[in-house]
Amino acid sequence: MSQENANLEARLEEQDAFEPPESFVEQANVTDPGVYEEFEENWPECWERAADLLSWDEEYETVLEDDDAPFYEWFTGGTLNASYNCLDRHVEEGAKNRAAIKWEGELGETRTYTYGDLLNEVEAFAATLRDLGVEEDDVVTLYLPMIPELPIAMLACARIGAPHAVVFAGFSADALATRMNAAESEYLVTCDGYYRRGDALDHISKANEGLESVEHDVSDVVVVDRLGDDLSHSLGSNQHDWDELMADHEGASVEPVSRDAEDMLFLMYTSGTTGQPKGVKHTTGGYLAYTAWTSRAVLDIKPEDTYWCSADIGWITGHSYIVYGPLALGTTTVMYEGTPDYPEKDRLWEIVEENRVDIFYTAPTAIRAFMKWGAEYPERCDLSSLRLLGTVGEPINPRAWKWYYKHIGNEKCPIVDTWWQTETGGMMITTLPGVNTMKPGSAGPPLPGIDARVVDAEGEEVSGGEAGYVTVNNPWPGMLRTLYNNDDRFLSEYWAEYSDEDADEWVYFPEDGAKLDDDGYITILGRVDDVINVSGHRLGTMEIESAVVGVEGIAEAAVVGGEHEVKGEAVYVYAIPEDGYEDQDDLDERASEAIDTSIGPIARPEEVIFTPELPKTRSGKIMRRLLEDIASGNELGDTSTLRNPEIVDEIADQVEAE
Ligand code: WTA
To answer: Which domains does the chain have, with CATH numbers?
Structure first.
């Protein structure tokens, strides 16, 4: 490293606050610090600003209806269509030839859909779905990887008022079946396969295996031909070739259905404390208004931008900030099918250069991988088009933040560290890039109109410098409305901890720990429930545990998250073999396979540790914190309250030896 560079690194390392660059502020969508006060003084009417970003068929009568709290309603009485808002209105305003989606496949092939093209495709698929018998409010499951047919299918569903339920393509057959069963979904759109590191992966076999475990009749399955092989031979009797159906419906015109603001736009299953995933319900008016508003205020998106979020559409980030928010604003959104290091570790930076990307939004786990690979890869490419950077999904450590700031943003781009959840629909805690000072490692203050706090166990706000739990003390338009078919679980999961039901005071509990500083900035510390965050993917330890204890030869298991340099957290399995199974060499492999089968490769354990006992309290509770510390290589605290303290050293020695 040259002396000059070394000085630069040293300066950056010491700096703990960064002002938004002047060049950015000059052009930013939001620059007035008064916006916080405006929202506070005019709450909840302030949210009309978000609703005003949309085109309504019927104007809403009430901004917020809280009679039946916490079953809040937003923009009551209003009607609109999400696909109209993401497509038709832009075409009507003259943007027919503007690129809506720029897609790059793993093999290097590209496809660009203008707003006009995308509308045509969406209408053709909407007509197809109708012909198959899909009616308003039927849930359509989309089990697709990062190919343009996924957003096309989502918007086609939205056009005819059929909620979609996207299942991440990396999930297993069992995970697909669990979700289709829970949503009673009778329609599936999937594909033959897709590419990973140059190899074709089979997907349809996984889909078919999942379909075998669906408990109700599935009326139709549409299969996209991604691999280019002959599909027709492999299709079952109720399975159709996407291309054939689309050819039959080419040029179709399908009127967007007027949906009530509170009608369901989609369902998204996410992990919780129990083994059963939660079906988070999002609505048409509030969700779309909120994602459009945050895309504008936080991501600073303008119609003429090329914007890229490198998440997968199979997760909420892709729903809100690849598809709905950006398209509602009429911008160009980039989609990439593959991995960041294929064929080389500069793949993402090549995509930025080729597309002249203005705004780039990714996950801390990716940034930590870039850091490990080295600055030489981004240095090979021209990244000067970038104006703003973002991160989401997990805490970002200051070192990774600064690396991102320097080596990707060239110290010219603000970084927004956005905290939010599947349930919140959109961003909640983050700086506004044209307004606030940035502090690496801290997400920032709550957004205007969001009353997020850090509280102690009693719900009292903590002082600056103290840690506690995040709560959100007033509702917001993008919030989940309930858990599908499970109002009780909605109440108990999110509203039981801090609300005062008798006083009709409702407090949302996201189950995250956090620290507050003297300026009101919030640093998120991580989940406080049995959910772990592996590479920004939310996984329930109970789901993984139930897969492991189903393995023949395993008597008991505990699954925890341990710190991981790149993934943030990794899965650690501690298992007790059944008598007679202690010497089975393949027991750990079978445990990993069981996890693959029930969830998918993303949940594969870092280590499976066999032990004759698990550390337990006198009342028989497994001490998970201790197991987490062992996995993370942390110093172990007091073990004297355990029934079997001697086991702890034994386990720790084993983990160290691995
Ligand atoms: C974590 C992803 C720290 C958090 C959008 C949350 C974060 C969970 C951040 C939700 C951030 C998300 N800093 N932690 N900027 N963003 N998280 O539902 O623990 O997949 O509760 O939504 O990710 O994960 P989910």
So the answer is: 62-417 (3.40.50.12780), 529-658 (3.30.300.30)
